[in-house]
Amino acid sequence: MDLLYKIFIDPFVQMGAAPDLLVQTLWEGLVAGVLYSLIALGFVLIFKASGVFNFAQGIMVVFAALTLVGLHEHGVPAYLALALTIAVMFCLAFAVERLILRPLVNQPDIILFMATFGLTYFLIGFGQLIFGGETKVMIADQLLLPRGAIDVKMAGGFVSLQKIDIAAAIIASIMVATLAIFFQRTRIGRALRAVADSHRAALSVGISLEQIWVIVWFAAGLVALTTGIMWGARSDVSFALEVIALKALPVLILGGLTSIPGAIVGGLIIGVGEKLGEFYWGPLMGSGIESWFAYVIALIFLLFRPQGLFGERIIERI
Amino acid sequence: MRATGGPEAAVGDVLLSVENVSLSFGGVKAVSDVSFDIRKGEIRAIIGPNGAGKTSMLNVINGFYHPQRGRITFKGETRANMRPHEAAYGGIARTFQNVALFRGMTALDNIMAGRTLKMHTGFFWQLLRYGPAMREEADHRHRVEEIIDFLKIQEIRRVPVGRLPYGLQKRVELGRALAMEPELLLLDEPMAGMNLEEKEDMSRFVLDVNDHYGTTIALIEHDMGVVMDLSDRVVVLDHGIKIADGTPDEVKRNQAVIDAYLGVAH
Amino acid sequence: MFYREAGQFKTNYAADLAVFPILQDRIGLMIILFLAAVIIPWFGSSFLIQAVMIPFLIFSLAAIGLNLLTGYTGLLSLGTGAFMGVGAYACYKLTTYFPDVNVLIWIVASGFFSAAVGVLFGLPSLRIKGFYLAVATLAAQFFLSWCFIRLPWFYNYNASGAIEVPTRALFGIPITGATATDTTRYFVVLSFVVVMTWFASNLVHGRIGRMWMAVRDMDLAADLIGIRLLQTKLLAFATSSFYCGVAGALLVFLWYGGAEPAVFDVNLSFFILFMVIIGGLGSLTGSFFGAALIFILPIALRYFPPKLGIPVHPATVEHIQFMVIGALIILFLIAEPAGLARLWQIGKQKLRVWPFPY
User: Residues in chain C whose beta carbon is closer than 8 A to a beta carbon of chain A?
Assistant: First the structure.
């Protein structure tokens, strides 16, 4: 009885007792959610356009961030380093298309998925070899990203909003809007969607698979870079970030693999859910539940809606 | 309800009947208020232009799709929905328009897979692969070899089915369905994509299955010659609605059927 | 011309249904078993047995477990590490509560615990497929990993969070703990692996193997021919987890001699998955090949350059390891998605027609 009270009643009582704390937690959750959404966005882009689930998206985030910081460490000014990193991500996209996607065209999706595992491990090794394994600090100031916090008086107390988080939300929104327009309105966007449906059919109407893939992986690389910068600005850049990619998976489940709005909504839900869970239910179960809490949320969701919130319902024909 | 005379006197009671079945996907009406029956021992053809709802109808009988309205009566039992393994255990087997074989397995294994519902030795004996498990495996292998002989596919036993030409794949699929020892066999366009010789072979097999094993057959087919020659009775669907039902001769002369096939505006 | 089956006739179905119908295959198998059971323990160095053979066998067993689930039944699982952990911790708890019962019995029992957990986390497979199911297994992985770290009951409230394996004996000979010799442990592991591989082989060649493969290849058609999907999938989860559980128990009790909870993390899951991919999905021999390659490669990378006189920094070696494994996976998927097992089969095929080219 006491246990039931602790699980189902008490946390809500606590929420009501200190509403400013609740708002703060919600805000933190939203912020984490934005970052999850960005990572999920990279996955959705590549999946939507090539049908490949790019497991390496996480390491691409780290790789992009490290390249940026690494270049700056060697004396390259911040915005030039940024431009060079973008170029590097383009080269990466080109290499992936040439060496991995082209030889594996028309193979079943699971093979391509496993190839991205290989890519992940390769990039981990390669990244560590070139940049070393130590943690680095993101060059947020040099990129002219805002610092400090705004304290808002509300709900009986103070809620502290970090400026960098606000910036992250704004930048993420711009990025999402651009991508959405790109997919829906442009010729290339249509070609991307065609390729996601069927490689063979796309080839037969003259769409150049190679070009499309390079574009898509480059776009995902840009998203990865943005994510890396934003994430790195809040906490430092290290290879531990790669594990964050695994966090994106529950987001994708909630939002569906093919939906950009789904990635956003899913990310926010998971971010908020996880933070609330960790803060109000965490003390009950011991610390560290955020390592699996998101997954459990997603799993429960899957049982009711196997295709996610926004995903397309797959009707199997036989 | 015995069949009252006629040339196909071997045909018996109603084995399966569908009553007022309607099926739609979202806004698309695949089948609207269709009723017909299939008598034991007959060869029943289901024909109609593309998109008429024929495959959907078979899928309903199999239990793969659940109709929004209507009932299915099979061997005297009426139900609103069939479930796939209920259909299988009840004696309904089928082949598919786009050959649904297990591509990772050989032809022999595919047909042996059809025997699964008749194999019962437990997990423990399977672990040892000895005694009862081996005897059962050998027994079923014997039955499967009979089917392989019947379909004349001995040489390709051990070939992974993904590598077989289309015509042979369809034969293996027929073999897998026969391995279930069905009372009702649903064939979805078994002659599709075949040349004249292959069609003659397949027609021979269909007739032999009906004669030799006594299996009732429901057959979707586009080749009118095949339909007229093989079937006892025909159901014609168009845009999900039944437009004719009778012997091949009756259906051939039915104006609505002629219109549907010639595409007269209606 | 040595590897021909000309002249080998089978006069009944039972003979034709044998797992190794060709005589040359049977001879080859005998030779391998002889090598494993006699030559290696007799002539092999302690390093070979302790650092190479024992873990190779254990990882092969885990790879077989994962292969049954992912390669034969088509259910991608990323929770292998956790299931191995369940086996290891179950065995640990059982033997500390009941120290007088033979530890071998507890190793087998821990497999059943693991199987139960596997079935529990496999229940979603009724509704969820493919990639989404993989994510469900990740949920199992992360949750169980957390349990091993956060619930002190698992490691008997030991301050460091790690477990240490107590000494247990069989017929007076110590087989676990600090006093057990590597040869003894090798024989125990070898016995487990040989017997369980034999079981797995029997399963996949019979009715159950066909059911699993049918579910993998086209589950809708399998349903329509009367294969009960949920039961078949759950059986796959149970069997696979059993194998992984036993492998986990062997890992801790007969190789490491102890464990930290971090051992059974998601990286272990990936490690085993790579073995299965490279070795060949849907092939038992492939599991052994994959384990050999993925496990022995890092050892070779660490061992040989110094012998050849090339000085290599240990951290660099690890980085190169990652790169090589990653590149190998990609290369294999391009060149031969069916893995080393298929290459082996192609080799045997060439051997059949040797010395002719085709």
Answer: 76, 124, 127-132, 135-136, 138-139, 142-143, 145-146, 149-151, 220-221, 224, 266, 270, 273-274, 277, 315-316, 318-330, 333-334, 337
